[in-house]
Write the structure tokens for this entry.
Amino acid sequence: MATGAEYFFGAGTLWGFPNAGNLGTAPSPRKFGVLQGVDLQISGDFKELYGNKQFPVDVARGKIKVTGKAKYGTVDGKQLNDIFYGQTSITGRKIVVEDESQTVAAASATVTHSANFIEDWGVIDGANGVQMDYINTPTLADQYSQAAGVYTFAASMNGVVVLISYTYTDTSGHTFSVTNQAMGYAPQFQILLHEVYKGVVTDQLWYSCMSGKIAWQTKNEDYVIPEIDIQMFADATGRVFDMWTSN
């Protein structure tokens, strides 16, 4: 029974659930957090039948294409792998340390996480802001070398504050490594879009989706808003989507 017009406001809520294709490690349903908006486009090709006059005598609809786009505010590495890359992930990660302050003493400085040190990412002379040069045997100011998180400098650098950037291993978080796969390799997933406004509800469940594009843009004085492009298609049983409404 009709209950009047339905109106909707806001971005709604969107989930993705990897369920087929090339799946990553332990794929899980996850919400696209701080959703900014979803854009779904359903477009069909028209085929016109013409005779010897200007207007067609019949029109039929051919292929239908469904594409979507979602923008969201959270950064979720596991979701990114599950939805887009579908590759192996492990527990643990590398942590980046930017400009750790150390004072040179006895021509050396040891970083805080030297026990789990991975890689040097440069040193800045805190006194003058100069980016220092890596050299096997430092003999001049603003030169350094490094081994297992122990940084060596020229004796003239004693007492100078240096800013060291590096990476080290940690047991928290997740890591996935993207390797070159054969053409066609990709995960498939379902999406569920849920909208509620003034007690009116509508839901859309799209059974088979694949993403062909991830956009990631950083800006000064603004949030990173990841964007994912999606294409929908029929699953093995012919299902495309269901819509549930309260009206």
The chain has a mean pLDDT of 94.
